[in-house]
């Protein structure tokens, strides 16, 4: 699945969340989408969460 297809699906899902839950539902869906993207990117090796979360530093 291409990146543009994933972006289209994410946009459609956020649109449904906005229509069904109003602005609050839209924000919750957006935050959960970002969290899912970060976790998926971490498992794929694209995102380094230890730098974002301030993981342990080894000297």
Description:
- 2% of the residues are buried.
- This protein has one domain (3-53).
- With 59 residues, it is mainly α.
- 80% of the residues lie in helices and 0% in strands.
Task: Map the helices and strands.
Blueprint: H1 3-44, H2 49-53
Number of self-contained structural domains: 1
Major pleated sheet: none
Tell me the distance between the termini: 41 Å
Radius of gyration, rounded? Answer: 15 Å
* Structure classification: mainly alpha
Question: What's the helix count?
Answer: 2
How would you summarize this macromolecular structure in one to three sentences?
The protein is 80% helix and 0% strand. The chain has 59 residues and is mainly α.
List keywords for this structure.
2 helices
